């Protein structure tokens, strides 16, 4: 996944922690496993092969058995045997197991539940890629270095003893010639072992460079705004392997793999978000169109001028999801009256503490409780929407979900697009469930407007006015949360601020991800 265009230093820093989302690689899913309601939390390893930590909550039922297994999207070696998840002591309804993820790319975790309600299963897509290089700890390095010196000295000594004494009959004196031959042998052995070690160091350094080069990075992207005939945002995927994905000879000569086409997720080929960089006081959720799946165009809402971070979500037919990141300068007066509402939306204003007023007069309340927010722990992202008279608001499906939420840290190092079903893209889940045939794949050369319709199984409306999103903040810091709902055909956004603390004993991992 090497870039076709060079990245600037700022962009490298922005995307260095990327996976399917920015700085938030773990997977959350809440939904049905047959007759059972489950919550699945997958802590994805930072290196592959690696061990995934899987936790499953079965709500309002006591199952006889919960199992989990991992498999690749295109696996052809048979299905691995599932592992039994054991009950978690002190946490009723929770089950835990650990599974190896052996191959990078688009994987899935299949959760199976068996109990008095029957049998059920759920497929949870997992993007497993190497995101960081694990450093050797100093204590372990010193131990290994000491053992290496001991082995080096032992081998040299054994070589000298073999020449000096091994062929001498018992009781005979060593000749001066044999002593010098032994010394010469030890010297030659030391030189030979030194050359072997030097060659091994050269080989290891090359392997290390190759591994660092292979660390996953999303497609690089560039963006600009033109004002001819109305303000338009132009977003271009600048990865040479993607732009030349149809040229098999070029891909082979450059050591690149073949990318599968794009899928529409929640009825859209791309979900693009703009967040003003300096203060996060402006936010937009757009859905660009494209004719070639490389160049995307969207109308710009009336946002205040400034530098904006851009995050663009894509899902491939293999179930592989990735978030592309770049920045763009938005000039003043980019859009005027009459900017279309539709499915695109924007919000200008600060974040609230617990209660936010929506543009249509209703109030959105964050029911977060009194406990402090801590990274790594399930976050209380529960919200209620009420009309001015206190009645629960009637919520309509918005892009196939009862709500959408975006969580971003103020420095741009964490970004996540959430739904009530979690961090899992619906298109990726459908691709795994139906072998990639559940959604119209993006053609190699042109977009199909008909493919932007609704997906099967999209949510129906709700009159309870209540929402929840399964999630855990991956890192401490200052966050803003935008929660979007549709009421009376109009998309409305509530914004909330959150300060997330560190758990006891927390230390940043080398990549910036939590341990």
Polypeptide structure, described:
The chain has 515 residues and is an alpha+beta fold. It has helices at 9-15, 138-164, 176-214, 240-243, 248-253, 426-433; strands at residues 27-33, 36-43, 50-59, 65-72, 83-87, 94-101, 105-115, 118-128, 221-226, 232-237, 271-276, 282-286, 289-290, 295-299, 306-315, 321-330, 345-348, 355-357, 363-366, 381-386, 404-409, 415-418, 466-469, 477-487, 490-500. The chain has three domains: 26-128, Immunoglobulins (Immunoglobulin-like); 138-214; 221-500, no CATH class. It contains six helices and 25 strands. It has an eight-stranded antiparallel β-sheet, with helices on one face. The chain has a five-stranded antiparallel β-sheet with strand order 16-15-11-12-17, with helices on one face. It has a four-stranded antiparallel β-sheet with strand order 9-10-14-13, with no helix packed on it. Strand 21 (404-409) and strand 22 form a beta hairpin. Helix 2 (138-164) runs antiparallel to helix 3. The longest helix has 39 residues, at 176-214. It is elongated, with a radius of gyration of 28 Å.
């Amino acid at each position: 996944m090497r870039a076709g265009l060079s990245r600037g230093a700022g962009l490298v820093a922005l995307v260095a922690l990327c996976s399917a989302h920015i700085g938030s690689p773990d997977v959350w899913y809440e939904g049905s496993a047959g007759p059972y309601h489950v919550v699945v939390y997958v802590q994805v390893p930072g290196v592959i092969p690696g061990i995934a930590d899987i936790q499953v909550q079965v709500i309002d039922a006591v199952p006889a058995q919960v199992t989990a297994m991992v498999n690749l999207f295109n696996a052809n070696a048979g299905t691995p045997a599932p592992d039994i998840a054991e009950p978690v002591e002190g946490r009723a309804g929770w089950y835990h197991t650990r599974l190896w993820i052996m191959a990078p790319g688009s994987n899935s975790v299949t959760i199976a539940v068996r109990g008095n309600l029957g049998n059920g299963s759920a497929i949870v897509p997992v993007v497993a890629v190497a995101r960081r290089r694990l450093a050797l700890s100093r204590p372990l390095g010193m131990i290994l270095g000491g053992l290496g010196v001991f082995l080096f000295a032992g081998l040299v000594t054994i070589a000298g003893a073999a020449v000096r004494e091994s062929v001498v009959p018992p009781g005979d004196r060593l000749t001066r010639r044999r002593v010098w031959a032994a010394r010469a042998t030890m010297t030659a052995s030391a030189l030979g072992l030194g050359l072997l070690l030097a060659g091994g160091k050269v080989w290891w350094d090359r392997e290390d460079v190759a591994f660092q080069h292979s660390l996953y990075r999303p497609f690089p992207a560039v963006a600009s705004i033109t004002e001819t005939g109305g303000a338009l945002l132009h977003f271009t995927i600048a990865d040479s392997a993607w732009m030349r994905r149809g040229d098999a000879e070029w891909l082979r000569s450059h050591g690149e793999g073949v990318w599968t086409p794009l899928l529409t997720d929640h009825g859209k080929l791309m979900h693009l978000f703009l967040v003003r960089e300096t203060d996060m006081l402006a936010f937009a959720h757009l859905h660009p169109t494209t004719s070639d799946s490389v160049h995307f165009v969207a109308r710009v809402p009336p946002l205040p001028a400034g530098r904006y971070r851009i995050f663009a979500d894509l899902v491939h037919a293999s179930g592989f999801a990735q978030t592309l990141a770049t920045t763009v300068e938005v000039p003043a007066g980019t859009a005027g009256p009459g900017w279309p509402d539709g499915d695109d939306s924007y919000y200008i204003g600060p974040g609230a503490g617990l209660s936010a007023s929506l543009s249509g007069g209703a109030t959105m309340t964050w029911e977060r409780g009194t406990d402090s927010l801590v990274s790594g722990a399930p976050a209380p992202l529960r919200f209620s929407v009420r009309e001015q008279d206190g009645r629960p608001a009637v919520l309509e499906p918005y892009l196939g979900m009862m709500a959408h939420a975006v969580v971003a840290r103020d420095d741009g190092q964490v970004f996540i697009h959430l739904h009530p079903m979690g961090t899992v893209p619906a298109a990726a889940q459908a691709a795994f469930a139906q072998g990639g045939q559940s959604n119209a794949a993006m053609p190699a050369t042109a977009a199909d407007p008909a493919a932007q319709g609704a997906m099967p199984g999209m949510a129906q409306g709700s009159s309870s006015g209540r929402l929840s999103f399964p999630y855990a903040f991956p890192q401490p810091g200052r966050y803003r949360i935008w929660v979007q709902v549709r009421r009376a055909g109009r998309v409305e956004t509530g914004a909330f601020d959150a300060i997330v603390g560190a758990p006891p004993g927390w230390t940043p991992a080398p990549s910036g991800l939590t341990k």
